[in-house]
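Exercise 7. Predict the joint structure of the components listed below.
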Amino acid sequence: MYVYDEFDRGFLADRTAEFRGQVARRLDGALSEDEFRPLRLMNGLYLQLHAYMLRVAIPYGVLSSRQLRTLAAIARDYDRDFGHWTTRQNIQFNWIRLVDAPDILDRLASVDMHALQTSGNCIRNVTADPFAGVAHDEIDDPRVWAEAIRQWSTAHPEFSFLPRKFKIAISGGLEDRAAVAFHDIGLRIVAGPGGRRGFRVLVGGGQGRTPVIATEIKPFLEERHLVSYLEAILRVYNLYGRRDNIYKARIKILVSEIGIERFRDEVEAEWQNTLAEGIDLPDAEIARIRRAFRAVALKPRRDGEAVVVERRLTDPDFARWLKWNVAPHRVPGHAIVTVAFKEPGRPPGDATSAEMETVADLAQRYGHDEVRVTYQQNLVLPYVARADLPALYDDLREAGLAAGNTDLVTDIIACPGLDYCNLANARSIPVAEAITARFAEPGRAEAIGPLRLNISGCINACGHHHAGHIGILGVDKKGTEHYQITIGGSAAEDAAVGTILGPSFTAEDVPDAVERLVDAYLGLRHDGESFLATTRRVGAEPFKEALYGHR
Amino acid sequence: MPKFEPSLFTANRLADGVVVYLAKGHAWVEDIAGALVATTPEALGALEAEAKRAVAARRVVAAYAVEVTLDAESGTPQVRSMRERIRAAHRTTLAYHRAREAAGPARALPASDYDAVPAERAA
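Solution:
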């Protein structure tokens, strides 16, 4: 893992001290709310429906067990004993007292964590493949480059007041596990000519009220030029991006308004400047960062298979968990384990302090002390010996974290919705709970197969509904909560925006509607065909008919 | 001229952000049952002036008026929108989860369940 140096720690100490002073001045009246709001937002502190909400950055989703324990302690000491994994690999605390916020930031800083750039019109926390460094299909470790971007973008003076927020995602495998096509900039690590590594650079993707799949701006960028090229894109956006209309301020609108060709030309021209300025990281610095992410020294093992096979044959719940939550590791005899915070009936992504501490314990016991957060609101243990899988499973089951449903219909992504969010039109969490209750029988969800169901409580789309194989969007219809349903979205390599099927449903009718879509799929699918593949083969019509009958 | 709807003032307490309602004696209370309800435009104007003073005095932030329905029997104010009902309930999703566990298997909740589960108070 990357460990902060004295510069990082000094910077954080200065920032938390500065915020402590700002809070004191707000409380004693030297600062008005209008003056204070942008300052607290620069420190991740929002005023939400019920209270202040603190969004803590988890850079590229990587946590040590010590850091995870600190998050648990904050939940216990300063909140209502739980936090919420966000859809950008961060964590939110929902009931924070303003007067406690400086102490919380000090606690975070003590384990090299903070809440900077988790809000505001700046470059936000970079998200990455949660299987980074261990995936069997990895070309290069995206954490190296995500960390380089973190260092470059933190408090970047030129990019602290962009037209709008700016999100970058980076994926290093053949499979895109970071939803890069739905980001302002999406980076895919690729192998280039002569064995060189680099990036396929996408630009102008995003969700929200105008969902757009990012467009390729550069098929191959040499890795050593990453920072200068990003700087060029940001400069062009900062110059030409609209500031007169918040709904038209994201880079996706600029790219679609001027066209990718002109945008590319502008970036290429600016890139000559940033190259000449020499802002790319020196090779020695990249090498230093890379050393921080040196792979845990794992030896190939053959001792695990017998216990795993024996347990799989005798325990169907374990077999299911093994099938859906355990992914192949680059080192034989080891595994990547998804810890599901998606037991049917629970609020997606909510984690109690006790659960966080359990995972921290298990990471120490079985997982080389490291945990990852996924944008699907689960946790990942990236270094588990297959021999330890039965014991780990038993410990997870005791903690209620052994649902074997990753990527199944009950592994729902949901934003906090109207239960917490000032922007929401409708609740997300109760709808997610009701749907998971409907499909709670594990064998049923498994028989349906991979089905990503995503719920957002408003058009801002924090619940990634556009990218759901089934997407559910909460809308306000004459003062009541209604839900619009889409199908066919995807956040993977085959990224697509879902198609709206028709008029919205009340909350009570949503589980029935989802069930009708699933039944229609089961009637239409060919052998081994996923929900998404079936929707692409047959189109939306049969699903419209399933929901609304003949019209 | 549109009919005047009974209204109260709500805000978030500055120091901890908790949802509060303007009550008697310049107080801001967490329980909506204790809120002062204006039944005339003049009374609402007085509540607004009081709310502005509380904002200036750094007791609360984000103060605004909410229309309510008065319970026919008790006269207590009932907010109408789901957003305001959720605010008034001070509810957490975790409590929601625990209530579900106690109640048995999860099910689709009608909107009225926000009234059925007792409000959870800040510790």
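Discussion. The two ends of chain B are 45 Å apart (CA to CA).
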